[in-house]
Design goal:
mainly alpha
Length: 73
């Protein structure tokens, strides 16, 4: 997770520099901030994904096991 946070900081700094050089209303400035926004969305998505339990991992590896059977009502 820290890798994506580092990347966000790098892209944020690059967006600031681009906006300072090209101007706040330039397409390059907007594109730079779009990249930052996409990375932030990905970081939020990664925080929402729950890790699998040991039973879920076992069933992924052994779908035919009795413990992994699903019964429909």
């Amino acid at each position: 997770m820290s890798n994506i946070n580092q990347q966000i900081e790098q892209e944020r700094e690059q967006a600031r520099n681009t906006c300072a050089i090209e101007g706040e209303t330039s397409p390059e400035c907007a594109a730079g901030w779009d990249v930052v926004e996409e990375l932030q969305a990905e970081a939020a998505h990664q925080r929402q994904v729950k890790p699998k339990t040991s039973l879920e991992r076992y069933c992924d590896d052994n779908p035919g096991a009795d413990e992994c059977r699903l019964y429909e009502e």
